[in-house]
Amino acid sequence: MKIPGLDIDLDHLRPYFIGDEAGPERYRYVLSLDIMGARGKMLRNVRTASIPIMKLQIAALASKGKNTKGPVDLFPMVDGLYAVTESLDPMMFFISDVFRSMAAEFLSLKPWEQSVIRGALAYGPVILGRESKGSSEILAKTNYADSILLGMPLVQAFTAEAGAPPFGVYVHESARSFAPPEGHPVAHVFWRWWLAGETSKKLASKLAQELKGYFAHCRKFPMGTFYAPDRIAAHQELAREYFDEFETASG
After folding, report:
1. Residue 84: exposed, middle, or buried by beta-carbon count in 10 A (0-12, 13-18, 19+)?
2. What gap in Å lies between CA 242 and CA 183, rounded to an integer?
3. Contact 91, 60 (CB under 8 A)
4. Mean pLDDT for the chain?
5. What pTM does this model have?
6. pLDDT for the residue 22
7. C-alpha dihedral (51, 56, 62, 68), degrees to nearest 10
8. Using one digit for the tens of pLDDT, what is the confidence trace for 74-120?
C-alpha cells in the first residue's frame, strides 16, 4: 500500500492483526479492584507504595488458587487488578476471600501504614487476549496477549468504582440487570462481602470502627497523604452507609 506523495511501501510497517479472527465475545463478570489513593502513595515513595499493591495481588492469587467454585482469571493493573469469572459463585468467593485478607492486613497496621481497597462489579461481553493469538503471528509466539482483556464491562467496572465505599464493592447496573442464562441479576447496589460467614462478619465489624481512626489520621495530614478533605468526607460517609449494620449493633 502506498500513499500519493509518499514514496514508501507502508505494508511492512503496519502492525498485522485480523479483527475478524480475534477471540469470541464471552459474557463474563468483571471486578475492578484497586488500592484507594495509590497514585498519592506512589508519588510519596514507590517502595512504600509497592507493599499494599503487591499484597493485593498476592491476596488475589491466593484466592484464585483455593477457589473451588469455578475458575477466576486475573489481569493486573498498575494499582490493582481485574478479576473475571463466567458465573457469580466463584466471584462471590473471590470477593469475600480477598476482602477478608486485606481487612486482616489493614487491622494489623498503624494508620500511616494502612491502605484501603474498593471495587466495582459489572457484567457483559469481553474478548480475551489469549483467544486472539491466531489473529497475529507475533502474538501467537508469546504469552504477551494472555494479559490482555477487552470489553465494555471493564470500563463500566472501572468508572463505577467512584461510587464504591472504602472496603466495599459497588454493583454496576449491568450486573443488576443481566446474568448468565442459569443465574439471576445481583439485587443490591452494594455487595456486602461479610455475609459469607461469621469470621467475615467479625472482621467487617472491627473494620467499620478502625476506619474511623484511619480517616481521622488522613484528615489530620491531608498534604502528607495526598487525600483532599472533601474526598475524605465523601468516602467516610460512604463507609458509614455501607457498614451501617455494625453502627446499629454497637449503638
Report:
1. buried
2. 25
3. no
4. 94
5. 0.93
6. 87
7. 180
8. 999 999 999 999 999 999 999 999 999 999 999 999 999 999 999 99
DSSP per residue, 89-145: HHHHHHHHHHHHHHHHHHHTS-TTT---EEEEEEEEEEEEGGG-GGG-HHHHTSSGG
Confidence of residue 55 (pLDDT cuts 50, 70, 90): very high
pLDDT of 249: 60
Q: Which residues contact 168 (CB under 8 A, 6 or more apart)?
A: 118, 119, 190, 191, 192, 193, 238, 239, 242
Residue 132 near residue 104, CB atoms below 8 Å: no
Taken in order of first residue, the domains within the chain and their CATH numbers are: 19-250 (3.30.70.1230)
Q: Are 85 and 77 in contact (CB under 8 A)?
A: no
Q: Report whether pLDDT(251) > 60.
A: no
Q: Work out the angle at residue 227's Cα, subtended by the Cα atoms of residues 222 and 233, and round it to the nearest 5 degrees.
A: 95
Please report which confidence band the pLDDT of residue 250 belongs to, taking 50, 70 and 90 as the band edges: low
Predicted local confidence at residue 199, as pLDDT: 93
Locate cell 466463584: which residue?
A: 90
Could you give the CA distance from residue 214 to residue 220 in angstroms, rounded to a whole number?
Answer: 10
Task: Report CA Rg, the chain.
Answer: 21
Report DSSP letters for 204-237, one per residue.
HHHHHHHHHHHHHHHHH-HHHHT--HHHHHHHHH
Q: What length does the chain have?
A: 251
**What torsion do the CA atoms of 217, 79, 63, 112 make, to the nearest 10 degrees?**
-20
